[in-house]
Amino acid sequence: MSVSNSSVTVYGAAYSVYVRIVRIALGEKGVSYTLVPVDVFADDGLPPDYLSRQPFGRIPAFEHDGFCLYETSAITRYIDEAFSGPSLQPPTLHQRARMNQIIAMLDNYGYVPMVWDVYVQRLEREAVDEARIVAGLAKARIFMKALSTLIGTNHFLAGGEFSLADCHFAPMLDLFAKAPDGADLLCEFATVHDWWERVKSRPSIFAATTA
Question: CA–CA separation, 99 vs 93, rounded Å?
Answer without folding.
Answer: 10
